Each structure stands twice: as structure tokens, then as C-alpha cells.
């Protein structure tokens, strides 16, 4: 039997703000006395168009997206963008730089290499993916069409806490697992993309923020629905968007504004992760191998000194209402995802359990 309250530490889909879920429940059958659920609305109708436009305005305000950038609500998750980036940004035979910092950047490299010549400008493999490679060690190609980074490695527990300077080469970032967790200088990027299932909303929705000069004709073999240019020129109406996911994302954006915006959210996230990492570092049972300066505030990855206790840890944590603390299958160990909606009480409950578990196994 699972104790209450329950705290969901899943890496994705992740915890949602309770207020958002409650509002969605209240509006599920009848959105603002329209007689329809958002799921039933025609996507070209006034009601849904108002929902989507408001979501875009709120997102632009939250991030400070400057003029000269488009916000696209697309489908397929961030993994689809691994292919769509070179198909939309590069002509055949062109080169792109990628920085390998862990599991998801390797996925992006593998898929991107099907459509372009990939130069791995730097790799964290030399340090067993325990740190972000310093930019001084990068070996970029000055003729690259773009430079790709993964701003937060969900499986490896690493994050950039600085912005690379790529000069005239457009910087492209997969921000799936730290999008909206902190302010970012959008003007430093050519493209930002993020799957929704961490800090935005339901899985499947993908947000792409792209600078206008990079909206070009896609390669001829690119499906029209996955052409950035087609989607931008149609205002997201080329095909049916993920209407309900866009609606939920809009509720999350307004929730973030009520929390004080991304500056306030970033400070809260820093406090939560600092407390958890202090508990890990202060124990002989737990170990986080990532360099402290590069640790993720969203995904704290750690291991037990005695790995044979991992299953017992997970079982007892679940009984205490602390769910989904297993590490990524490719990495193992344990992982606590501290997305925006995770309350301080959830982190406190996890730390208390960890201390009690360590005391029982001292």
C-alpha cells in the first residue's frame, strides 16, 4: 500500500502542477460554457485559435522571446527533431557540429548523422560523462551549418550552467528537460526545441522556437507537416495540432506567471536541488559522480554505495509515496527529477526517507 501524499519523481512524463490538473478537470466537459471540451473543438475555430494564440503570447512573455523568432507547436516529440533539424536547416552534404554530453546528445548525433555530416566538436566520454566539456576543448568546424547541444542530460544528470559562444554558427539546443526551469537568453540561439512532457504538458507536443532567418525551404523529401517553413507560414494550421496538449501547455504557462515567472521558478529549483545534493554528498551510502559545477537541477542522478540495496530502496520509497526514483535503463542507479511542479515538501520527504534508509543500513 502506498502512503499519502504521493510525490512523482518520474523523468518524463513528469509531475504536473496540481492547480493545472484541477482546472483541466473542471473544464474537461465544458470549456468556458462553450458546450464543448477543448478535445472536441475544431482547430480552425475561434475558440481554439484564441487558446493557441494566448499560449504563444504567454510563452513569448515568459521567455522574453524577441521579435524575429517564431514559436511553433509541433508533433512527434524532441526525438523527431533529431531528424527534422538537418532536414530543415541543412542542404544535402552539409556539416553540423554536435557536443556529446550524454545519452540524449548521443541519440541526436546518431539520428542527425543519417542526414548530415556530423562533427563531434567535443565529447564527455573522456570523463565518463561526469562533466560538461569546457568550451576551450571544443574543436568546432567553422563551416558548420549549426552547433547542437543538449542543455540538460536527463539520463546522466548533467546540465549547462553557461552558454557556449558559437560566433556566427547558429546555436541549436535540445532543452526538453530544463525548458522553462530558468530564464534563458533566447537571442543567443538559432533554434530551441523541447518535448513537452517535463515542464510543459502532455507528451507528444513539441515546441520549436526558431529565428526567422533559419526558416528556409526544407529538403524535398521532408514531409510538409514537418517543414518549419510550412508550419510557420500556415500559423500552425497546416495540419491538426495537438489541441488538448496546447491547451494544457497554456494553463502551465499561466501557472508559471502566477509563480512569479522564470526567475522565481529558477530560485525555487536551485533551493530544491541544493538540498537534495547536500543530502547525497553528506551520506556514506549515496554518491553522485557528476562534477558539482555541472550537476542538473532537474534530474539528480545518484547511486548507492551498495548497489544490491537499490531494489529495496525503490520498494520502500514507493511504500512511502515516493514514486519513480529508478535511474534511466541505460545508466542505472537512482534518479530524482525535480521539475517545476515538484513541491518543496516532496524534496523534504525524499531527503527524510533517504536519511532513515541510510540509518537502517549503517
TrEMBL record:
Annotated Aminotransferase class V domain residues: 6-350
Known role: Catalyzes the reversible conversion of 3-phosphohydroxypyruvate to phosphoserine and of 3-hydroxy-2-oxo-4-phosphonooxybutanoate to phosphohydroxythreonine.
Cellular localization per UniProt: Cytoplasm
PANTHER family named among the record's database cross-references: PHOSPHOSERINE AMINOTRANSFERASE
Matching Gene3D superfamilies: Aspartate Aminotransferase, domain 1, Type I PLP-dependent aspartate aminotransferase-like (Major domain)
One GO term (biological process): L-serine biosynthetic process
Protein name: Phosphoserine aminotransferase
Alphabetically ordered keywords of this record: Amino-acid biosynthesis, Aminotransferase, Cytoplasm, Pyridoxal phosphate, Pyridoxine biosynthesis, Serine biosynthesis, Transferase
GO molecular function: O-phospho-L-serine:2-oxoglutarate aminotransferase activity; pyridoxal phosphate binding
NCBIfam families in the cross-refs: PRK05355.1, serC_1
InterPro entries: Aminotrans_V_dom (IPR000192), Aminotrans_V_PyrdxlP_BS (IPR020578), Pser_aminoTfrase (IPR022278), PyrdxlP-dep_Trfase (IPR015424), PyrdxlP-dep_Trfase_major (IPR015421), PyrdxlP-dep_Trfase_small (IPR015422)
Modified residues (N6-(pyridoxal phosphate)lysine): 198
Pathway: Amino-acid biosynthesis; L-serine biosynthesis; L-serine from 3-phospho-D-glycerate: step 2/3; Cofactor biosynthesis; pyridoxine 5'-phosphate biosynthesis; pyridoxine 5'-phosphate from D-erythrose 4-phosphate: step 3/5
Positions that bind pyridoxal 5'-phosphate: 78-79, 104, 154, 174, 197, 239-240
Swiss-Prot/TrEMBL cofactor(s): pyridoxal 5'-phosphate
Family per similarity comment: Belongs to the class-V pyridoxal-phosphate-dependent aminotransferase family. SerC subfamily.
Cofactor, how bound (note): Binds 1 pyridoxal phosphate per subunit.
